[in-house]
Amino acid sequence: MRCRTLVAAFAALLATPVVASSQNHARPAPHQAPAVTVIYGTLLGSDGSPLKLAHVHLWRGLASLGASRSLVGADGHYAIATPYTGPLGIQFSGVDHSSTTVRIVVDRPQAIALDVRLARYQYADSLEVVTAMGDWNHFEFGSAQPLVKQADGRYSLVVDATADTLAYELLGVTKESGHSINGTQAARYEYDNGGDYRSIIPAKDGHATIVFDPAALNRTPGKQSITFRDSTTMAARAWRLMRDWSRVEGAYFDSSRAARQRHDSLHYDLKPAVARLRAALRAERAPLVRQMLLFALMDATTLARLNDTALARDLIAHVPPGSPWYGAMPNALNATYTAYRLVYSHGAAKGQPDTSFERKLMERQDRILAEQPDSELQAEVLGDQVFIAKGLHDDAKMNDYYTRLVTGYPSSGQVAYVKSQFAPNRVFQVGAQVPDFQFPGVDDSTITYSRASMAGKTYLLDFWATWCGPCVGEMEYLQAAHDSLASQGIEFLSISLDQKVDDVRHFRQGEWKMPWLQAFAAGGFDNPQIKRLEVFGIPHTALIGKDGRILAVDVRGETLTDDIRKALQAPPTP
User: Fold this and answer.
1) What domains lie within the chain, and their CATH numbers?
2) pTM of the entire structure?
3) Which of 103, 163, 266, 540 is most buried, by the most CB atoms less than 10 A from its CB?
4) pLDDT over 70 at 571, yes or no
């Protein structure tokens, strides 16, 4: 399980008659134009054989709007339909294989023939610890139980069962950390609503025995393939453009992570990719595809540090607030922010903030809120608006956006983060007592850093991780503040949210030694204390006074040292 849940079942979307075969698949009836878009074809395993169980899932936007799911036939054929146009996501999943998502664009109802072969899971070379989760623990990752290796090389685990069958998934079997998949033992399978499958086994007398046999894993290399039968369609063209940019973007971030691990500068030339995107934009005539290319180009030029104001003007002029790409491209809002900053940020008098582009951006985002149907997108925009209004010192608007967010979208992940920053009863707020915490040391796990151990000291709490680019970017400012303020008795305590404590130790062997107190929050954002402390994003800092009261929150950047000094000089908050 690793993807967002697809919930709505495949409903009666086919307004046009279809011809169904005895193998439980469907194709558009001949000589009839479909009243909806129908995607059909074959979904097979990497060896070209039908899968034990497979599904095709279709949705629009990022929030699974209009989501539907179709069972793939026993012969590997499938058909799925939607009344929607614009950007669509099609996910293909199957037992023992990695799921894949194909993103397309359609501008009118049509039939699209698409054949897919999935790649097999990449199994771990060494199966050191294999754990299982299932019905008995409500499929909670944090309470997965270890299987015991037997003399014959198999692994087993006996668990409680309340029915005559039990569903489970295994962790620690693939190379992808934290990825749960179906086991080698199964009477049947069921979809896990996250891109993978659960194994179902019989239970008897209140117990079930899970058996995992590494010898049954098919480790034969198998590649994924995606084939549009008509490669000239807009759907196929848009998919290739999105795929190619996604590959470049992935390679860029992989190189960036590798450079941080080496404590070296990033050497990745994005200019060829920018040139290809520009050429594609010049050649493209379809408005929906052009909008996607404008967003991708803005991303690319931003990463390449090319301040292209002309491109920014084109994006603002030719991507309407109601564009479906706002709900389909994760970076669309960031690209819009960059475009408005380039076009409308004209500088300000020294010492005065430049708010011109924020005000223009706020107007744009108000229109996005009014015209976009995607609830997750609406919540994200409202969260952005809260922070923009705060920066503009417009308390009325800030409170309005905050109220609309927390009352209208209570289940959104955006709410928890914004509440941690703005709620009247938030954990970290100036004047409040620092909440209790207890984290083991990085260098010596027998040492515990806590509110009690830090009592009577002035200190900066710093929540971070080695994988967090902005956190690493803060290192020079933290180092400078420490060098300047340590002699005054101010302590620094960094609490890592990394997966492994060794990640922190390795990081400190490089350029940034971080010669201050180091603690570790096992489990990262899933750590119960991290949740209780409302740390929903990093980097996150809090300055604590000798009396245990919070003096400042989220002080960072090049003004960190000065901000700490100012906070220490400010009168106590009642």
Assistant:
1) 18-118+223-228 (2.60.40.10), 131-216 (no CATH), 234-373 (no CATH), 438-569 (3.40.30.10)
2) 0.73
3) 540
4) no
296 Cβ contact list (under 8 Å, min separation 6): 241, 242, 245, 277, 329
Confidence category of residue 101, pLDDT binned at 50, 70, 90: very high
Query: How many CB atoms are located within 10 Å of the residue 202 CB?
Result: 12
Longest dimension (CA), the chain: 83
Rounded Cα distance between 79 and 20, Å, is 10
Give which of 228, 225, 240 is closest to 45, Cα–Cα. 225
What is the band of 314 on the pLDDT scale with cuts at 50, 70, 90?
very high
Whether the ω angle into residue 202 lies within 30 degrees of 0, i.e. cis, is: no
Task: For residue 166, report the phi and psi dihedrals to the nearest 5 degrees.
Answer: -140, 135
C-alpha distances in Å from residue 341, one per residue of 308, 329, 558: 11, 20, 20
CA–CA dist 4, 6 (Å, integer): 7
Of the candidates 272, 104, 94, 112, the residue with the CA atom closest to the CA atom of residue 197: 94
Q: Calculate mean pLDDT across residues 26-50.
A: 79
Structure tokens at 115: 């054949």
Task: Give the confidence band of 294 by pLDDT, cuts at 50, 70, 90.
Answer: very high
**What integer pLDDT is reported at residue 530 of this predicted model?**
94
What is the crossing angle of helices 287-303 and 309-318, to 10°? 150
H or E element at residue 285: none
Predicted pLDDT at 425: 81
Residue 330 contacts residue 296 (beta carbons within 8 Å): no
Rounded to whole angstroms, the Cα distance separating 474 from 493 reads 14
Q: Are strands 517-520 and 490-496 parallel, antiparallel or unpaired?
A: parallel
